[in-house]
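Annual report, structural modelling task.

Input specification for the glutathione complex:
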Amino acid sequence: MKFFNSLAALAVLGATAVVHVASAATLDDVMKKGFIQCGVSQGLPGFSNPDEKGNWTGIDIDVCRAVAAAVFGDANQVKYTPLSAKVRFTALQSGEIDILSRNTTWTLTRDTSLGLNFAGVNYYDGQGFMVPKKLGVKSAKELDGAAVCTNLGTTTELNMSDYFAANKMKYTPVVFEKADEVVAAYDAGRCDVYTTDRSGLAAQRLKMKDPDAHTVLPETISKEPLGPVVRHGDDQWLDIVKWTLFAMVEAEEQGITSKNVDDKLKSDNPATKRLLGVEGDMGEKLGLSNKWIYNIVKQVGNYGESFDKHVGPNTPLKLTRGVNALWNKGGLMYPMPIR
Amino acid sequence: MNNPDPALFGSAPPKPSIWNDPFYRSLFFQFSAFVVVVLLGKYLFDNTTENMARQGIASGFGFMGSVSGFDVTSSLVEYNASSTYGQAFLVGLLNTLLVSAVSIFLATMIGFVIGIARLSSNWLIAKMATVYIEVLRNIPLLLQIFFWYFAVLRPLPSPRQSLDMFDIAFINNRGLYLPSPVFGDLAIWVLIALVVAIVAIVFLTRWAKRKQDETGETFPLFLTSVGLLIGLPLLALVVTGFPVHWEMPVLQGFNFRGGLTLIPEFVALTLALSTYTAAFIAEVVRAGIQAVPKGQTEAANALGLRSGVILRQVIIPQAMRVIIPPLTNQYLNLTKNSSLAAAIAYPDLVLIFAGTVLMQTGQAVEIIFITMAVYLLISLSIALFMNWYNKRMMLVER
Ligand SMILES: N[C@@H](CCC(=O)N[C@@H](CS)C(=O)NCC(=O)O)C(=O)O
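The model returned the following structure:
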């Protein structure tokens, strides 16, 4: 009945016009209702996943929490809407959510014809292939004729079609609406290969009967810059989300963590003073309090802390920083200057 | 009151004013309702287009001609990643029609058997039919689809350990692999023979009915028909020297290639839809049979007819009048329920068109509109056909 979800969302698009779709001032709306409605996955460990107590955690969750900390001074003022890959954009377009923070790849089509804007990248990823070890496959080039399981409504569908065509190989796609069914079907042997973002593979393998029986092939067949998305046409809200991301990375670059942020308030480094709102009016320029970055770092942490806590080497996902390291440590995380 | 007042009965009653005339009144209300609906529709349409334009959401139907760039699991027509979205639509539509048609056929078969079994005088059979009905119609269909899918999938071996059936068919967890016929030029004669057989059966049926009406003699119609249907094409095959060869599925790399493939998604969805709907059809059939007065059975018994003949010639034809309208409902439900296919990756209209194509183009409004229109059209066609069939069944009645 997912079909009818989309239908309902469309009805909203048609009918909410009475009061113009919450296109303009999302900040005002959010202030009025007192929380941010954040669209997340239906459960992807490390990115957005409810823990045993039902609290959502993950690096995508931290983005929403950071925006809430910046806007309200309280990272807990967030409500979550779990969305399948298929319905996520309609949920954002129709105003059901304020931010989509759900391992979503930034592409030209999504940025333009869907009426959305990407606020940045919080995880640089690429698509990979997972196979059962017992298949004995060592490279994606050996996958001619394979059955490949994946998710409906993802960049994955097109990438694999391109990849197999470019390498003159045949394959059978098996496409499921929900991520859990992809895992179940792959686990039941319906497919030789499971393909999605490499980070997604690392997360989803945790749900399998025997996670160690599978291996990820060395090839990365696409670029998957994952980041938060907002509606087109609300520049202020876009700025807030964009600069919240930068602020988390900038805090890491300056060595400000949730542990030492109170000490750093006494720092006499002008950049740190500006960042934490001791001096200057960076927050006001965004329509926020000047304490915004202090609140983000204090309550959520900097980018590196968030990464290590949810997806880093000491988590079940065991992902290394790789290209997600800071720009001055050989990675791609390069925050624009906050000044 | 002996002399009725001529003013009341002789001439027409006095004309009420236009405001009180029931005809004009209803005309007025219907017209206003119509105007309100049209205005509301226009309002929604304008708002949607305006909202979409303001948010920069693409619109229009031009996308149907663009290259799709994605592949599908299985298709009844030629399709690959360089086909258009329009062709992807066709693939989805045909897959929806295929699974619906096969499931409707099977559901009807199973439904009639269970419905009749439920009325059986054999306690065990009747109870088993009741249990079937109560269990299947009280479990959500989606769960049943998952059940069948994983029940079909889990026990099956991987392609390299396929179950081999006489080297002709192979079963593994990727599907059922069958040889597919490849026809030579002369094979057209086999087709012609088949058409001839069908035409012959039609005439034979009429002739046998007339003969029975006139003389009371029966003719073994069923056996003769089966004989014709198999015999004539077979004869054509022999005469033309077997212009057909079989393409065998061969294990190559990861899986079998060549031949025909029935994917597990199709099998599971068909099983789920047909067994689930059969439970409802069984109840419809039971109700229909029970609606036929008991006297009919007793009369037929008194004539000395056998119970099979009574069922087929006396009860069912009369029960059909009661059965067909609710049966139509079940067919419509089944077709609409087939849209749950996306849950288990069966590439139907909803998965391919309202799923992948919608995601790829972002044109939700147009695509949902087309999809709704298609389901409406399919439903209307089924309803029209069943109405026609219903009328025909009525005419047979005296
Ligand atoms: N980054 C890709 C794929 C995103 C995606 O949906 N991935 C799946 C597989 S890792 C997922 O998040 N599943 C979790 C869920 O649906 O809850 C995209 O934006 O299209």
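The radius of gyration of chain A is 21 Å.
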